Each structure stands twice: as C-alpha cells, then as structure tokens.
What we know:
It is a multi-pass membrane protein. Helices cover about 70% and strands about 5% of the residues. By secondary structure, the protein is mainly α. It has a domain at about 30-275. The strands form 3 sheets. Strands 1-4 form a two-stranded antiparallel sheet. The protein has a two-stranded antiparallel sheet with strand order 2-3. Strands 5-6 form a two-stranded antiparallel sheet. The longest helix has about 35 residues, at about 1-35. The radius of gyration is 26 Å and the shape is globular.
Amino acid sequence: MTTLIGRVREHSSLTALGGFAVAAILLFAVAPAVLSDFRLNLLAKFLCFAIVAAGIGLAWGRGGMLTLGQGVFFGIGAYLMAMHLQMADAARLGNDVPEFMEIAGIRELPGFWQPFGSAPVALLAILVLPALVAALLGYGVFKRRVKGAYFAILSQALAAALAILLTGQQALGGFTGLSDFRAFFGFKLSDPVNRQMLFFIAAGTLLVVVALVRQLMHSRYGELLVAVRDQEERVRFLGYDPANIKIVAYVVAAFFAGIAGALFTPIVGIISPADIGVVPSIAFLIGVAIGGRTTLLGPVLGAIGVAWAQTAFSEQFPSGWTYLQGVLFIVVVGFIPAGLAGVWPMLKGLVESRFRRGGSSVPVVVRENAPPEDAVPAGQQVAEEKVESR
Length: 390
C-alpha cells in the first residue's frame, strides 16, 4: 500500500511539473511572440487578477470563507507601490512633493509619505501590511466564530469603507487616485522592453503563487483546512483550533492580493478607489466561482477568462458586460456549482453511472410500498406475473 501511495504521489508530482513547464512556455515564449505590446500588457493585468484569485481559491474554495473584500488587501499593496513610485519620480525631478500634490496645492509632504521614499521600506510594507491587516481582522473575526454570511458582509463592508476613506484623502489623490508614473525602480515605464519585463515579473509571480497554493493544498494543513470547511466542530473536538487554521488561509490570500496590487500599479499606470471597492472585490469572486473554486487552476483560469471576456465584450458592447457577468454568475451558481472546472468530472460521472447500470435502457419498475431493493426490470416483472397466473 505504501508503495502504491508513493507511486500515486510521484505520478501527481510529475503531472504537476509538466503542467508548470507548459504554463511557463506559454507565458514566457508563446505570449510575447504572438501578442502585441498592448495585448501583452493587458494579459499582465489579467495575471494580477489571477494571483488574487489563487488566494481566494485557497480561502474560499478550500476553507469555505466567502471573502468579499479582497479589494482591501489588493488596494493596500497597490497604493503602497504607487506612493513609492510617486516619491521616486519626485526625487528624480528634484521636487519636494509629487506633482499631483503641487497641483492640489499641497506644499509639504505628509508624514506618512516619508518612509516610502525608500525602495526597501516600500517593498517590506507591501509584503507585511496586507498580511498584518488580515491577521488582525481574522483574529477578531474567527476567534469569535463569525462565519458564513456574517463574515462575507463584514469583509465587504471593509472594502466599501476603505474606498470611501481613500476617496476623501486628497493626500492620496482623492477619487482620481494616483497615476502618471514615469519609472519602476529606475526603469522607464515608457520603454516597451521594460513593460515586457513587467509582464515576465507578473507571470513568474503567478507561477510561484500557484506552486505555493498547490503545496498548501497537498499538505497536512490543506487537509485540516478542508476538514474545517466541512466539519468544523469535529476538528475542534480533535483538539485543533479551527480559528487558527482559517486565519492562516486568510492571511495567505491577503498576502497574495497585496503582491498582485503592487504589480497592478505599474502595469496599468493608475490606482484609484474605483479599483479596490466593493465592485472589484465581487468581480474577483465571480472569476473564481466561474472557474471552479475548489480546484487549483480553476480560480486562475476563471479570473483570466472573465477578465478577457470583459475586455472583449466591452469593446463591442460597452454597457452590456455587467448584465452578461451577472447572467454568467447566476448560471454557474445555479447549475454548475463546481464551476467550469467541474463540467468534465460531472459529465464523466453521468456517463460512468449510465454504464454502471449495465448499459441497458430497460426501465426499472418499483412495486407500490416495496423497498428499493425489490425493484425489478419491467420485462422480468411481466414474466413473473405470467408464471403466477398459470
């Protein structure tokens, strides 16, 4: 048995390794060769959404936590990166404050902007702050056993509150946000070569994130996370604290979202409250649901596919995408709960169950008031009745 399990794991690892190799070839060789600079930059933006989706897949698909507020952590990472890029541009031009502050009449740099003139501090903040906020929020929520719809509403309210807070902050650009970045750690963003490098960074980050999520899913922690999702009280009875298990998944998802936000800012060239509020947070979730939240690649491919469909459809029907997105979500939730990733297993199960019944189309007759095991084929019932009549 041990040998069999080892072979299965070895086969699974080889399959995963082959999958990563194919994905790397598609991202690092095929995409730059066949896509224009504009489309490649667009794909880099979609990869940022896929990084967020991978974290949501872990927290929601495996942990059962309906995270409707991932825009918060995405926004923290994005704004921290934007602040550093603005400070770097101001230093390069010899200005005391960023240009948007001069236009707004702000002559003195606010104190909370000061640390972000340093690149290491900015990078450290991007890695730590979203995870720290998630840890504090998760500790307060999961230790009090808040879950289900209450947790979803709370996380969504947090996203709305952050968007409203940022809209009123002129020191952070107000409702227009921060934009017009000239360089990314010394590399000009107007150079096509540097923009292609941003795509490679996003692609490499996505592969690393998917590998980490896979490792977590196949670890003992991943098994505990699924057990908490399905039978939380039994896990507590076995001596584990479900709150700690949930907090870890929630923090990991926030960590990924913060990194995605930091990459999103230089790729798109702007970050505003409209990119991190309730609507973007729900859009992240819709991509995961359509792709298949319980699988490894479902959330990633779902996020990329939905973002691509949004762009393609909006080019033809600018105001129609919202309705199509709603219809897609209703269809998936109502008829394909496992998402598009669950379509093939569902069809396979239907075919196997059909053949398991013997491949016969003979209808089964159940006698009135008889237990299910007394059910007999219709032809056999007629023959028995003839024998009894003789």
